[in-house]
Write a structure and sequence with these properties.
With 426 residues, the protein is α/β, with parallel strands linked by helices. It contains 12 helices and 20 strands. The protein folds into 3 domains: 3-108 and 206-267, Adenylosuccinate Synthetase, Chain A, domain 1 (3-Layer(aba) Sandwich); 111-201, Adenylosuccinate Synthetase, subunit A, domain 2 (Orthogonal Bundle), CATH 1.10.300; 269-425, Adenylosuccinate Synthetase, Chain A, domain 3. Helix content is 31%, strand content 19%. Bound molecules: inosinic acid (IMP).
C-alpha cells in the first residue's frame, strides 16, 4: 500500500519520531495531519546528519532529515508561524537542508496559533477546577476558533488585507476575555506586523497541500502520515475531557490532509510500558519506587514541556481499544530495552465499580476501574544490541507474545534503543 499512517496508541510519547524517520527512508512525502507544536518528536541520528545527534521536532515533520522526502504540514495542524520560522531556522543552523517550496510545504488551510491563543490556554487552565494539564501552547483555543469560524488560516498570512480584517475581528473577542482578567489586550498592529513577516518567510511553502497530496497519490507516490499525540488523547475517542483538541487517530489523517478515505497501512506505536503527561485517568499508573526507576531508566520527561511523565504498566485493554479505533494493522513496540531488570506486568481486564470484569475501555469512570494484572518474570540481559527476535531473552519474547495475545495485534517491529538502527523486524 503506498500510504502508511503512523499513530500513537495511548497518550503520545511512544517514540513515533524514530519510527517515522525509519520509514521515511522509503517514502516520498511525510505529512503531519494534526496537533501543533504541543508535539515533540525525537530523532536520535548519526552525528554526520545532525551534529549532536538528538533532534527534537515540534512542527516540522520527522522526514526532514531525508533529502528526498517532501515534508508537509497538513490542514489539520494548527501552526504558530513564529514558532515554525524559528524551528526551521534552528534546523538549518544544524546543517539540515530545508528549502521552502521544495522539501517543506505548509497547507494554506492550516489554522494559525497566535500568542493570544497561548495566553487564552493558560487563562483557561488557571480557571479550571479540574485541570487538563495542557502544554500551554494555545492548541485548544486555536482549534476552538476554527470551530467558531473566526480563526486565521496560514494562507491569510500572505493576504494582508484579509489578515488585518480577520485579526481586528478576533481581537474584539479575545479582549473580552483578557480585559477582565487584567491581561494586556491583543495588539492588532504588532501582531499583524509579526504575522506578515512570518508569512513572507514562509510564502514559498504555502500551498494547497491537499491538492499536492491528491496528485502525489494519483501518481503512485509513497505517502507517510505522521500522527501526533495518541489515540487516547483524541478529542472524540480519547479520555475526554483530558484530551487534546485534535483528531489524533487515523480518522484525522483523512480530514487533516485533504486526501480522500482510501486503504492505507496503519501502524500503531506503543511503548513496552505506559506513560502519560498531564492530568486525566491512567488505570495502570504506578505511584511507587518502580515508577521512579522506570522514569529514570526511560528518561521519561516531556520533550515539549520537560514535565516528568506519569508511569504505569502496559495496558492491553487500552491498547486493544486504540487498535480498534485506529484500525492498526500492527504494532511497533518501543522501549523494550528499558524494562531490563524490571518485573513485567500487563493489565488484561478492568474490574468495574459493580465488580464485573471487562476488556472494553469505558467512556466514563475510567478513574474508578481496577486493572487486573498478568505478572510475568522479567529479563536481566541488556538487549540494546539484539537485532533478531529469536535472540531476545525468553522472558522478553514471552512478554511480546502475551501482548499480541491480549491485544489481538501483531507486534511487527520492536525498538530496543533510541538509535536509528536499534530495531528488530519480525
Ligand atoms: P494540549 O494539546 O496542549 O491542549 O494538551 C492537552 C493534553 O494533551 C495534556 O494532557 C497534554 O499533556 C497532552 N499532550 C499534548 N501533546 C502531547 C504530546 O505530544 N505528547 C504527550 N502528551 C501531549
Amino acid at each position: 500500500m503506498p500510504t502508511t499512517c503512523v499513530v500513537g496508541i495511548l497518550w503520545g510519547d511512544e517514540g513515533k519520531g524514530k519510527v517515522i524517520d525509519y520509514l521515511a527512508a522509503e517514502t516520498d512525502y511525510v505529512v503531519r495531519f494534526g496537533g501543533g507544536h504541543n508535539a515533540g518528536h525525537t530523532l536520535v541520528l548519526p552525528p554526520e546528519i545532525a551534529g549532536e545527534g538528538k533532534l527534537v521536532l515540534h512542527l516540522v515533520p520527522s522526514g526532514i532529515v531525508h533529502s528526498h522526502t517532501v515534508n508537509v504540514i497538513g490542514n489539520g495542524v494548527v501552526v504558530d508561524p513564529i514558532h515554525l520560522c524559528q524551528e526551521i531556522e534552528k534546523l538549518q543552523k544544524r546543517g539540515i537542508s530545508i528549502e521552502l517550496g521544495r522539501n517543506m510545504l505548509v497547507s494554506e488551510r492550516a489554522h494559525v496559533i497566535l500568542e493570544a491563543h497561548q495566553r487564552q490556554d493558560q487563562l483557561a487552565e488557571s480557571g479550571r477546577n479540574s485541570k487538563i494539564g495542557t502544554t500551554g501552547r494555545g492548541i485548544g483555543p486555536a482549534y476552538s476558533d476554527r470551530c467558531g469560524r473566526i480563526g486565521l488560516r496560514v494562507g491569510d498570512l500572505i493576504r494582508p488585507d484579509t489578515l488585518r480584517q480577520a485579526l481586528t475581528a478576533l481581537a474584539v473577542q479575545k479582549n473580552v476575555l483578557f480585559e477582565p482578567a487584567g491581561m494586556a489586550p491583543l495588539d492588532v498592529d504588532a501582531t499583524f506586523d509579526q504575522l506578515v513577516a512570518a508569512g513572507e518567510k514562509l510564502r514559498p511553502a504555502i500551498v494547497d497541500a491537499g491538492l499536492v497530496l491528491r496528485q502525489a497519490r494519483n501518481a503512485g507516490k509513497r505517502i507517510l502520515l505522521e500522527g501526533a499525540q495518541g489515540c487516547l488523547l483524541d478529542l472524540e475517542h480519547g479520555t475526554y475531557p483530558f484530551v487534546t483538541s485534535s483528531h489524533a487517530t487515523t480518522g484525522g489523517a483523512y480530514s487533516g490532509t485533504g486526501m480522500p478515505p482510501h486503504e492505507m497501512l496503519t501502524v500503531g506505536i506503543v511503548k513496552a510500558y505506559a506513560t502519560r503527561v498531564g492530568e486525566g485517568p491512567f488505570p495502570t499508573e504506578l505511584f511507587d519506587e518502580t515508577a521512579e526507576q522506570l522514569r529514570a531508566a526511560g528518561k521519561e520527561y516531556g520533550s515539549t514541556t520537560g514535565r516528568p511523565r506519569r508511569i504505569g504498566w502496559f495496558d492491553t485493554v487500552a491498547v486493544r481499544y486504540s487498535g480498534g479505533i485506529s484500525g492498526a494493522h500492527e504494532l511497533v513496540l518501543t522501549s523494550l530495552d528499558v524494562l531490563q531488570g524490571f518485573p513485567l506486568k500487563l493489565a488484561v481486564d478492568y474490574k468495574l465499580a459493580d465488580g464485573t470484569l471487562t476488556k472494553n475501555l469505558p467512556a466514563f469512570d475510567l478513574d474508578k476501574v481496577e486493572p487486573q494484572f498478568l505478572e510475568m518474570p522479567g529479563f536481566d540481559e541488556n538487549i540494546c544490541d539484539v537485532r533478531d527476535f529469536d535472540a531476545l531473552p525468553q522472558n522478553a519474547k514471552n512478554y511480546v507474545t502475551a501482548i499480541e495475545e491480549h491485544t489481538g495485534l501483531r507486534v511487527g517491529t520492536i525498538s530496543v534503543g533510541p538509535g536509528r538502527d536499534q530495531l528488530i523486524k519480525r
